[in-house]
Amino acid sequence: MKVICPRCGNIIEISKKDKTCFCSECGNNFSKEQGQEAISRKYKSLQNLAYRLAYDRLDYEGAIQAYKESLELKSNDFSSIIGIILCKLYGQTFDKLEFKEIINILNSYDISLNNENTFIYLNFIKDVLGQVNVFYEESTSRLMKDGKFINSQYKTYFLDGLKDIHEALLFLKDNLSICYEPEVKEFSESDDTLKNLDLVISKVEDDLNKDFEVENEETTLDDLSVIIVDEKDRNKLTKFYIVCGGIIVLAIIILILGSALKNYLIYIALVVPIILGIGAFVYFKKYFNLKK
Question: What predicted TM-score, i.e. pTM, was given to this entire model?
């Protein structure tokens, strides 16, 4: 098993029977419990970092690196493995699609689909179906015009993508047989993901048999990213999080002052951050709605 030296952060392999640990890097002696606590803190920090990088900053490569560092702490950690795959899907381009990485990455780890991992796996299938839907929407709106591909190469990208998607979805469906059955049953009773999985597989199979046309005058796109990241929108989103953070800090300061001074009239000042929060929400919501 792995522990971390609380003093220098060195990762150390120890036996489960060991009660004390020695760090050869800094010479520190510490208990196994201290080393395990340090592992948990570091793991949680890396998971939070990966989430922020992926969903707040849209830095998928940075998030993948954070997930890989998590795997150094916890081998075969399913959450980190899924995180890597999803970041690859988020950052893929039409000329370099990553749907096949679903199979390649999952097969490269020794994963047990127990109760907890089955729940993660089922929600992962939902996320994958979401990215398949994004692929379809972006292909239709950007690679095609009036039902025809704007470029013969784009038609090839699309069909190759469908082949990879079909293979990946069948792989995910086949693995349901080794999932924790009670969790699959409970999930299916409240969620349509597995029904949608069959529907999407059928749709992909139908589309693979279609004869798509290409426009006579071919045109090209400047950006082949499946999900286009608008820098203006990214900066606007960053400002939104900063504003929200400032409002929360202001509210906390008011609460602390009210409690310290035992003057409950100070709490009236909470109206200010509340109004600011509502205003910020309305403004940014209106901005992103207009961008759609």
Answer: 0.78
